[in-house]
Design a protein that fits this description.
By secondary structure, the chain is an alpha+beta fold. The protein contains five helices and five strands, in the order E-E-H-E-E-E-H-H-H-H. The chain has two domains: 2-76, Roll (Ubiquitin-like (UB roll)); 84-150, Orthogonal Bundle (DNA polymerase, domain 1), CATH 1.10.150. Helices cover 34% and strands 15% of the residues. Strands 2-1-5-3-4 form a five-stranded mixed β-sheet, sandwiched between helices. Helix 2 (84-91) crosses helix 5 (136-150). The longest helix is centred in the C-terminal third of the chain and has 15 residues, at 136-150. The protein starts with a strand and ends with a helix. The relative contact order is 0.16.
Length: 154
């Protein structure tokens, strides 16, 4: 079945089974591989993307559920890694192996868009992505730094 998806501001016509997870359409048909596969059941968050600005676990969303919505992947955050969240991630060495961090950045970005001054508790509640390397402390610090970098008075 052919349908159109708006990914990072570009319209893509894809041909897939309607129940194919969005993750696989993004990776295999559109060719954007920054969104990662890990658990396949929506638990870990490595596959997090935004649908109309809201974070979703793309391994658990049928691709056709995203028709008519704006999909943003890690590649759509900034073409050169200059978004304040990405800058903070690099500055504080938040990733260790880095596999889960595209999903973490997408979760952090959604949090900061909704709450520009999150507490540690807000971060813990909103960025529930799993990290085998356990870099949670650095992730939390990076989110606070990104919040500072995103403030208009800077």
């Amino acid at each position: 079945m052919a349908f159109d998806l708006d990914v990072n501001g570009t319209r893509h016509t894809v041909d897939a089974d309607p129940q194919t997870p969005l993750l696989w359409v993004i990776r295999d048909q559109i060719g954007l591989t920054g969104t990662k596969f890990s658990c396949g059941i929506g638990a870990c968050g490595a596959c997090t993307v935004h649908l109309d600005g809201q974070p979703v676990r793309s391994c658990s969303v049928p691709a056709t559920a995203a028709v008519g919505l704006s999909i943003t992947t890690i590649e759509g955050v900034s073409p050169d890694g200059s978004h304040p969240v990405q800058v903070a991630w690099k500055e504080l060495d938040a990733p260790q192996c880095g596999y889960c961090h595209s999903g973490m950045i997408m979760s952090a970005l959604a949090l900061l868009n909704a709450n520009p001054e999150p507490t540690d508790a807000d971060i813990d509640a909103s960025v529930s992505n799993a990290c085998r390397c356990s870099t949670y402390y650095r992730v939390r610090q990076a989110i606070h730094l990104a919040a500072d970098l995103m403030r208009p008075e800077r």
